[in-house]
Structures are given as C-alpha cells and as structure tokens.
Design a protein that fits this description.
It contains three helices and eleven strands. With 210 residues, the protein is α/β, with parallel strands linked by helices. It has a domain of 146 residues: L,D-transpeptidase catalytic domain-like, CATH 2.40.440.10.
C-alpha cells in the first residue's frame, strides 16, 4: 500500500468514525426524548370518577415494599426521589418502605426540605386559579369523598401549596402529571398517613440536570 492510498484509507476511517459517533448521539438523544415522553402523561382531572379495585392494582415495582436504602436521614423521614417516581419512608437498618408516586410535570417539579404541617382524611378540593384557567370545566369546590381528585388522605407540606395525597386516577402513578403535588393510590396514602405524624421531615430530591 503506497502513502497516498494509506492517507485515503485513514481519512475514510476517520470519516466513518465521525459518522458513527454522530449516529450514536442521535440515537441517544432520541432515546432520552422517548424516555421523557414515557414518563410524562397528559391527562385531565376527573372529579367524580371512582376507580375500580383492578385499576388500583399497580404494577409490581410501584407497590409498597421494603427495600435497602442508603441515607443519612433518620428513621421516620420521608425522602422523595422525583425522577425515580418513588417515595421512601426511612426505616432502621439501612432500609425503607418504598411507594410508587406521581409527580409534578415538567415545569412544576421542585426540591427542598419541609415538614408535614397538617394531615387530613378525605380532604376537600379547591382547584387553584391557574388550574381552573387550564381546565375551566373543573368545579371551584368539591367535598371530600371517593371521587375527589385529592383522594383519601392529604399530608400538607410546610407552608407550601403542595401536598402528598391520594388520587382517583391510579394510572397516573409513575408519571409526571401533577401541578407539583405528590400522589399515591388511596390504599397506599392511607398506609403512609397512618405511619407518619405531623412534624415528619420530608426531603424532596431531583437528579442533577446535565
């Protein structure tokens, strides 16, 4: 192989390498976009809808279960991993009870440190003005009950407008769909409600954005 042929071959290989790298980036970007699409869910609130027992049977990964959990937080603390769609109730011995949750959609997610300031059974629902602006058909007030979008229980987070609460839309668990609150199916939020007192520390975490 002469020098000219060798240079042409090296140029071709470099060109092929660049093409493969660009193709990989394109596939990676497409994969990220698809994953984000799968994790977000555009769905309207359904005041008055009462889900069936079958609808409230979540996929195995979102059902409450004990898991190993490394944290410096004390037992009894609630740790919410927004990106994972999981809420952890820290236990002794490096373990936690993990619950599947629905979280705020893009633009409504947040992080911080708060405490549970109040607990309510079958809370009333008063959609905020910005929600009514997006969904004008919503009632301005709805008393607590099985068809209430706030679900069976609500745990209020500090002096914010956000809550950990139930839902009458079990299919939203595992997705980014709310206006910043964290939702569990009614059976699970009742279990959590019974385990934690007012004053419980709540840590809301998000993964770093690249």
């Amino acid at each position: 192989m002469n020098g000219k042929t060798s240079r042409l071959t090296n140029q071709a290989l470099r060109g092929l390498a660049v093409f493969v790298a660009m193709l990989s980036v394109a596939f990676f970007a497409t994969g990220l976009a698809e994953a984000k699409k799968q994790k977000e869910l555009t769905i309207q609130d359904q005041p008055g809808y009462v889900p069936t027992a079958e609808e409230e049977m979540l996929p195995p990964q979102f059902r409450p279960q004990p898991v190993f959990f490394r944290t410096n937080e004390a037992p009894g603390t609630i740790v919410i991993h927004t990106d994972e769609r999981f809420l952890y109730l820290v236990q002794d011995g490096g373990r936690a009870i993990r619950y599947g949750i629905g979280v705020g959609r893009d633009g409504f997610q947040w992080q911080g440190l708060v405490k549970i300031s109040r607990k309510t059974e079958w809370p009333d629902w008063r959609p905020p003005p910005e929600m009514i602006q997006r969904q004008p058909y919503l009632p301005r007030f709805m008393a607590g009950g099985p068809g209430n979008p706030m679900g069976a229980r609500a745990l209020y987070l500090g002096d914010t407008v956000y809550r950990i609460h139930g839902t009458n839309q079990p299919r939203t668990i595992g997705y980014a769909v709310s206006s910043g609150c964290f939702r569990l199916v009614n059976r699970d939020v009742i279990d959590l409600y019974n385990r934690v007192p007012v004053g419980t520390k709540v840590v809301i975490l998000q993964s770093a954005k690249l």
